[in-house]
Specification:
four-stranded antiparallel β-sheet, 2 domains, Aspartate Aminotransferase, domain 1, EC 2.8.1.7, binds 4'-deoxy-4'-aminopyridoxal-5'-phosphate, globular, 14 helices, alpha/beta, seven-stranded mixed β-sheet, 404 residues, Aspartate Aminotransferase, domain 2
Length: 404
């Protein structure tokens, strides 16, 4: 039984007021709010077993190492990776993607091709453009349709023996479209191309199974799914992680160092140079436990109810334009009211305690496609309510009257 009022009690921030009004937080696609149990785990680590990991013989170091490695196994289980060393802990999706893009510098040659989609966050565009500049590889783009979906036929036409790598998001942050990634992966594999899935927006709503998907890489950021900022992960198939050179040099990632030659540590340490965000990784594991205790099926079903409720209410507002109308969507609504700048709407409703995102959402190619400077984006989480949506709709109507 999904009890949203009980769940809300786990999130202290939901009690606060903003500009004298109860906070309505609809900027979940940017970052989620945090349950107390996750925050407690950070205080617990620093209060009771703070020590550096992997190097110490002393008790605190062993306790910290155990907690850190237990978190890796929780993450492995959550994503159903075959091996724990296929989970590389990073500072987030951006770091993860850059790690792979940097590694591919030594694997690509002039005129090899890589394929991106029109629906990407800048984090899944810019590192690959930099890679193409370094290697002379060619970047091809899967076009999008008016509904905010990928044109899969056009993708089929882009694939060829020259394609070495495909990188697409599981869910678009700007529109909420859930992309048909299994199909995208299978089609790439017909040409022996590797696939990286940016799961930053999918993982708060969907529990991916990387073995079933059969992708080469899958990445996410803890802060979008009730965890802390500055932590994330990348799953990589063992064979591919072995092929990629290390991203950064330093402590932890070596086997032996001499001035003549350094040899690298085994996976996963090869990609984890330096002291990591130990507290953050442990808390990431706690956040996953918390979300799994609610259940991803329940979360998705409830959020879908919120999505439909809000979509229907928004469509009752005159001059409303919704972007991204795919049937396969997470609880994200991107919209504009004709003749009004999204920033003005965001500023006015902030005065009423409502947090939404306005702008291009780090996805300028999508905005260019629709020929708009940006949108208002309301993104819901499992701790939001229909009552909050009613407050939001009333505030929008007020803003519209003021700005028309
Ligand atoms: N990809 C997508 C689809 C995103 O939504 C985000 C975060 N907005 C990122 C990548 C980057 O994530 P981070 O900033 O946590 O590295």
């Amino acid at each position: 039984m999904f009890d949203v009022e009980k769940i809300r009690k786990d999130f202290p921030i939901l009690n606060r007021k903003v500009n004298g009004k109860p906070l309505v937080y609809f900027d979940n696609a940017a970052t989620s709010q945090k349950p107390q149990v996750m925050m407690d785990s950070i205080v617990d680590y620093y209060s009771n077993f703070n020590a550096n990991i992997h190097r110490g013989v002393h008790t605190l170091s062993q306790e910290a190492t155990n907690a850190y490695e237990e978190a890796r196994i929780k993450i492995q289980n959550h994503f159903n990776a075959a091996k724990s060393h296929e989970i590389i802990l990073t500072s987030g999706t951006t770091h993860s993607i850059n790690m792979v893009a940097s590694g591919f510098s030594s694997l690509l040659k002039h005129e090899d091709e890589v394929i991106v989609s029109a629906l990407e966050h800048h984090s899944n565009i810019v590192p690959w453009q930099m890679l193409c500049e370094r290697t002379g590889a060619v970047l091809k783009v899967i076009p999008m349709t008016l509904k905010g979906e990928l044109d899969i036929d056009a993708y089929g036409d882009l694939l060829s023996e020259k394609t070495k790598l495909v990188f697409v998001n599981h869910v678009s942050n700007a529109l909420g479209t859930v992309n048909p990634i299994k199909k995208i992966i299978d089609m790439a594999h017909d040409y022996a191309a590797a696939v990286l899935i940016d799961g930053a927006q999918a993982t708060p709503h969907i529990k991916p199974d990387v073995q079933e998907l059969d992708c080469e890489f899958y990445t996410c950021s803890a802060h979008k799914l009730c965890g802390p900022t500055g932590v994330g992960m990348i799953y990589g198939k063992e064979s591919w992680l072995n092929k990629l050179p290390p991203y950064q040099g330093g402590g932890e990632m070596i086997s032996e160092v001499t001035f003549e030659k350094t040899t690298y540590a085994e996976l996963p340490h090869k990609f984890e140079a330096g002291t990591p965000n130990i507290a953050g990784v442990i808390a990431f594991g706690v956040a996953l436990d918390y979300m799994n205790s609610i259940g991803f099926n329940q979360i998705a079903a409830y959020e879908n109810e919120l999505l439909h409720y809000a979509t229907n209410k928004l469509l009752e507002i005159d001059k409303m334009v919704l972007y991204g109308t795919s049937k396969e969507k997470t609880a994200v609504i991107s919209f504009n009211i004709e003749g009004i700048h999204p920033y003005d709407i965001g500023s006015i409703i902030d005065k009423l305690g409502i947090a939404v995102r306005t702008g291009h959402h780090c996805a300028q190619p999508i905005m260019d496609y629709y020929k708009i400077p940006g949108t208002v984006r309301a993104s819901f989480s499992f701790y939001n309510t229909k009552e909050e949506i009613d407050i939001f709709i009333e505030a929008l109507i007020r803003a519209k009257t003021m700005l028309s």
